[in-house]
Design goal:
Elements: H1 30-42, E1 50-54, H2 61-74, E2 77-83, H3 88-99, H4 134-147, E3 151-157, H5 165-178, E4 183-189, H6 191-199, E5 210-213, H7 219-232, E6 236-237, H8 239-248, H9 253-264, E7 271-272, H10 274-298, H11 302-312, E8 318-319, H12 320-327, H13 331-343, E9 347-349, E10 354-357, H14 362-372
Parallel strand pairs: 1-4, 1-5, 2-3, 3-4, 6-7
Antiparallel strand pairs: 8-10, 9-10
Helix pairs in contact: 1-2, 3-4, 7-8, 7-9, 8-10, 9-10, 11-12, 11-14, 12-13
The structure holds adenosine-5'-diphosphate and magnesium ion.
Magnesium ion binds next to helix 2.
Length: about 375
């Protein structure tokens, strides 16, 4: 790598502690990506062509979708990215028109829908055949793509079980698969939302999708991200610093970036040390509470929260039986919430009914809240 020219200004901080921003070093998701790509290369009916990723906030779902889109493009697929929001189906058609413009005939001309007498003009609304169903409009586009031997990859972020358009999409997708079309859907969402969508009848097509969880990064992978990112700015970091920072991040990609970001700022020296990490982790604390803990807690249900509050009373590990007693519920009932919270990445099982918080600062936050409120 060419040596960076040091002018008066230090190089920009290379870490990316904001949601959805592409990291300098991307690790640990190779298998997930390879499986989807293998599905695209295989053929209609391959189960990887309908995949849903779940993981807690900050586990790297959005960035993973972006990577899959890039790789899909390399092998001749047109990727279109949408979020699960009202208007999603129209948005998909719109994105196809943009992303695949080179393969498509110009959209149908607008029709004269009304004669308005605004001075002189005749109102002409350029509406693309809104009377046709989504399935029909998509069928036409897929025909045109097929003529060029191009597949269509739809990615949907932030899966929301309450969005009716998701069930239309699911039904029509199955119809297209039945027709042996070159189409695939890759989705991502928070675990509880996706599980809610699994159980809702209207979106049960999700149950037939391949379901993959984004596991915490291995320590070696977190260290690799930190090292490569630091070195991309022409600086160095000691082994001790790497271990300390990676450990503090608990395998959560967002925390790796956040701790890396604050650590990088602690010194102007060429080499970042373990002491810089200690100061960086400290400096990251406020952001971590705001950007991670508070946002995450806004997304959990009242009963999840009651469970977490009951846990926060323990200094070390918690025992499920005690939690149930504090909540005034049966152990079995508490057990279902234990599972939900594990899936959400908020707590970790420690064997024999014992659990601990998985997210750093969660316990501290709940304890502070208890003192104030
Ligand atoms: N595999 C990865 N390696 C390194 N950094 C990552 C990885 N995945 C995500 N990140 C970083 O983590 C943060 C959160 O990623 P994001 O995709 O927004 O998470 P999510 O969508 O699950 O909330 C971003 O700052 C991103 O740059
Ligand atoms: Mg996201």
């Amino acid at each position: 790598m060419p040596k960076l020219v040091r002018s008066g200004r230090p190089p920009a901080n290379p870490f990316t502690p904001s949601y959805g921003s592409d990291p300098v070093a991307f690790v640990g998701r190779e298998t997930l990506i390879d499986d989807v790509l293998a599905g695209l290369e295989n053929g209609p009916g391959d189960p990887n062509r309908s995949t849903v990723f779940t993981g807690p906030r900050g586990s790297g779902k959005t960035v993973l979708l972006r990577r899959i889109e890039q790789e899909a493009r390399q092998i001749g697929w047109v990727p279109v990215a949408v979020a699960a929001l009202p208007g999603m189906l129209d948005r998909i058609v719109e994105r196809i028109r943009v992303e695949a413009a080179e393969f498509l005939a110009p959209p149908p001309r607008g029709r004269i829908t009304s004669l308005t007498v605004q001075g002189t003009g005749i109102g002409r609304e350029a509406i693309e055949a809104p009377l046709l169903s989504w399935q029909t409009r998509m069928g036409t586009l897929l025909d045109e793509l097929a003529a060029h031997n191009v597949g269509l990859l739809i990615t949907i972020d932030e899966i929301d079980p309450g969005l009716p358009e998701l069930s239309t999409l699911g039904n029509d997708f199955q119809f297209f698969v039945g027709e042996k079309r070159q189409i695939a859907i890759v989705m991502a969402g928070l675990p509880t939302r996706v599980y809610q969508a699994f159980t809702a009848r209207s979106t049960s097509f999700l149950r037939r999708s391949f379901h993959r969880q984004l596991e915490p990064l291995r320590l070696a992978d977190a260290k690799a991200v930190l090292r490569q990112t630091v070195e991309s700015s022409g600086r160095h970091i000691t082994q001790g610093a790497l271990t300390r920072a990676a450990t503090a991040a608990h395998g959560l990609p967002f925390l790796v970036q956040l701790i890396g970001y604050h650590t990088w700022r602690q010194t102007a020296n060429d080499t970042i040390t373990a002491d810089d990490v200690t100061a960086g982790v400290d400096a990251a604390e406020d952001d971590q509470r705001e950007m991670l803990v508070e946002t995450t807690l806004r997304e959990v249900s009242p009963t999840d929260l009651a469970f977490l509050r009951a846990m926060a009373q323990d200094d070390g590990e918690s025992v499920l039986r005690d939690i149930a007693a504090r909540m005034g519920v049966t152990s079995q009932y508490a057990g279902t919430y234990r599972l939900r919270l594990i899936r959400q990445g908020l707590i970790t099982p420690r064997g024999r009914g014992r659990i601990v918080f998985a997210l750093p600062f969660l316990k501290e936050w709940l304890r502070d809240e208890g003192r104030i409120g």
